[in-house]
Design brief:
The complex is a heterodimer of chains A (349) and B (293).
Chain A lengths: L1 H6 L3 H26 L6 H26 L7 H19 L3 H19 L9 H20 L1 H4 L5 E2 L10 H22 L3 H11 L1 H6 L4 H27 L1 E2 L6 H14 L4 H29 L4 H22 L3 H9 L14
Antiparallel strand pairs in A: 1-2
Helix pairs in contact in A: 3-8, 3-11, 3-12, 3-13, 4-5, 4-6, 4-11, 5-11, 9-11, 12-13, 13-14
Chain B lengths: L1 H34 L6 H18 L4 H24 L7 H23 L15 E3 L2 E3 L1 H23 L1 H11 L1 H6 L4 H27 L9 H11 L4 H22 L7 H12 L14
Antiparallel strand pairs in B: 1-2
Helix pairs in contact in B: 1-5, 1-8, 1-9, 1-10, 2-3, 2-4, 2-8, 3-8, 5-6, 5-8, 6-8, 9-10, 9-11
Classes of the chains: A mainly alpha (349), B mainly alpha (293).
């Protein structure tokens, strides 16, 4: 109280400034940690971190489509596959640089996404979801069947991508950079007319029409952008693992991404990051736990590893939906003392 | 001539396997009609029915005649528990929540089944005659033929029950207008529980037939994808359309598998579904209750 009088500023402004300062400090700490991470010199951790960064890109894209625009997509991994195959083919046959591969891969995924979003011109809700399910199966079929181009079930094997001459560390930095830029783009998008239109369409499409928003174009764009993000993730994934095959792009992977944004928090970029990290690391943590448990009890727990993983995966989804619908974001907001965030439980058509 | 008779034989086998789809798809449609829940865990409910049967008959050494009713009742009870504790609290939440709950549930059931019964392929005791059936000169494998007959009898009697019985009319009233139905004294909660119980029993029957033909693994539930194709082709709100669509998808898949290879089996049905979504979203026989932009 006295402070406010002395400085002559309302308390509200001060706390807001302090808040943003704290946030900035937080981001600096995160950035330093991320940059210093390879100093651990642990190949396994570096591998996981790169995987997390790739999945963050994929999850952010899906959140754009599902969380912000309210279009349920069950075919996200198929668009990832489009990017992965396009990027890999360009690398193999044209020898183009990584950045160009990423751009073209994203563009290809965007266009293929638009094709499958055509049913969105007429239908919505769960019917549209089934159309995306059709995209999943049809693209998966093409990946497997078009052997001359995609290498069929064996897929394609790629040469090493060496970025900054740093090997895996370089790839880690590059992926993190791309992920950060794409997250930033997404954040800024929702401060523009286009991004706000996504949310308006999600909330009430009739009202959005009245406001002069072209609902069909907005939905197509939201779907295509989500697919483009998936395409970027796909290119990076194939370059990193140096192999592309159809098994990387199954329905299970699409559900993995849906689970990531449920667990992380819908319509939230930080939520996508947290969710992708959590869902990528959770199975690994479970495996380590079982290994330790097996060593301690002398029993072989390998056999139950994969069923248990499936069980925990399902429990995660159900538990978050029932008890914390806003996901890890909900936890985070509560930690920061913010009670409710509007729109987090918005209706998805 | 030989080519033709082979085609006819494949067609008959395909249509026969469509019977299982009809049974499961009916289980899908009743739940959707009543509560708008899109049950992706239906395949896992089929699987659990077959595992219940296996547990009672093989592991607890009861007879088949004891095992069948216990498996069906167990599945119905499981379905009611799912409805009561997972889906009823979620009523009115966005579509993505309902869909993801059922995906999560499917994953849980799959994991549990693999932990309890391992991931190996199990053979469940025969409850269908092995004796092959001859239609003219065409041989239909016994289990498939009898499975089809059982599936059709149950499906048609369910449709009759749903259409004509007092309880069925109450269910349909609840589906078409919840508030009015409650105003007329129909207990909507009981109706929801009933539809899930029916769905559980129908899908368990389908699961039992499928498991007795193909063997039983935790992955049996993957068939839900074909069932979704059936449901959307027939029109999600149409009970009658499902019958025709089920036979058609069963036929299409077998023909494709026989002439083009197994890869095509999951592809073309979905191409059909995508085309239906583009040109006639309410399905071939669905009501005109589709949400459009």
């Amino acid at each position: 109280m006295t402070n406010a009088v002395q400085t002559g500023r309302p308390t509200l402004l001060r706390t807001k400034r302090q808040g943003s300062l704290a946030a900035a400090a937080g981001w600096v700490v995160v950035a330093v940690l991320v940059i210093a991470f390879p100093a651990l010199h642990n190949v396994y951790f570096l591998y996981l971190a790169t995987l997390v960064a790739i999945n963050v890109i994929g999850a952010t894209g899906l959140n754009l489509t599902v969380g912000y625009a309210g279009i349920l997509s069950i075919g996200h991994s198929a668009f990832m596959g489009v990017g992965a195959y396009v990027g890999a083919l360009m690398m193999l046959y044209l020898g183009t640089p990584l950045l160009l591969n990423i751009v073209v891969g994203a563009l290809a995924a965007f266009l293929v996404g638009l094709v499958f979003a055509i049913p969105a011109l007429r239908i919505k809700g769960v019917f549209l979801a089934v159309a995306t399910l059709a995209a999943q199966f049809m693209l998966y079929f093409i990946f497997r069947q078009w052997g001359a181009v995609t290498g069929g079930d064996r897929g394609l094997t790629l040469p090493v991508t060496n970025i900054f001459g740093l090997g895996d560390v370089g790839f880690y930095y590059f992926t993190v950079l791309v992920a950060a830029l794409l997250c930033l783009f997404c954040r800024n998008l929702f401060r523009t007319r286009v991004g706000r239109a996504f949310i308006a369409v999600r909330e009430r499409d009739y009202a959005a029409t009245v406001l002069g928003i072209d609902v069909v174009r907005t939905k197509l764009l939201a779907f295509g952008l989500g697919a483009a993000y998936a395409g970027v993730a796909g290119v990076l994934n194939s370059m990193y693992l140096r192999v592309v095959n159809p098994e990387q792009f199954t329905l299970t992977v699409s559900i993995f991404f849906l689970a990531a944004i449920i667990v992380g928090g819908r319509a939230s970029i930080l939520g996508s990051i947290l969710g992708a990290a959590f869902m990528t690391l959770m199975p690994e943590a479970l495996r380590l736990l079982l290994d330790a448990g097996g060593a301690a009890t002398g029993r072989d727990l390998i056999a139950v590893t994969s069923p248990l993983r499936e069980l925990v995966f399902g429990v995660m989804i159900v538990a978050f939906l029932m008890f914390e619908p806003r996901g890890l974001m909900g936890f985070y907001e509560r930690l920061r003392g913010r009670a409710e965030v509007l729109g987090a439980e918005a209706e998805v058509h | 001539m030989d080519v033709l008779s082979q085609f006819v034989e494949y067609s008959v086998i395909g249509i026969a396997s469509g019977g299982i789809y009809i049974l499961a798809a009916l289980g899908f449609v009743v739940v959707y009609k009543a509560s708008n829940v899109f049950n992706f865990a239906l395949g896992e409910m089929m699987m659990m029915g077959a595992y219940f049967f296996f547990g009672v008959v093989v592991q607890l050494h009861f007879g088949t005649l004891v095992g069948l009713p216990i498996a069906l009742i167990g599945s119905a009870v499981l379905a009611m528990l799912i409805e009561r504790f997972l889906l009823r609290p979620m009523l009115g939440r966005p579509v993505i929540v309902l869909v993801m709950i059922t995906f999560g549930l499917g994953s849980i059931l799959r994991g549990l089944a693999a932990i309890v019964w391992t991931s190996d392929v199990l053979t469940i005791p025969d409850f269908l005659p092995r004796q092959p059936l001859f239609i003219g000169s065409i041989l239909v494998p016994g289990k498939l033929a009898w499975g089809f007959i059982v599936a059709m009898v149950i499906s048609l009697s369910f449709i009759a029950y749903y259409r004509f019985s007092r309880a069925g009319i109450a269910l349909r009233a609840t589906s078409s207008d919840l508030t009015t139905a409650e105003g007329l004294g129909i207990d909507a909660r009981r109706a929801f529980a009933q539809t899930w119980a029916i769905s559980g029993a129908l899908s368990a029957t389908a699961g039992l037939i499928l498991a007795s033909i193909n063997g039983l693994t935790p992955q049996l539930g993957g068939v839900v994808i074909d069932i979704i194709a059936v449901v959307f082709l027939g029109g999600i709100s149409s009970v009658g359309g499902v019958v025709i669509a089920g036979l058609f998808i069963g036929w299409l898949e077998t023909i494709l598998g026989a002439y083009l290879g197994a890869n095509w089996q999951s592809f073309l049905p979905f191409l059909v579904v995508l085309l239906v979504m583009m040109f006639r979203p309410r399905g071939l026989f669905g009501e005109k209750r589709i949400e459009r932009i």
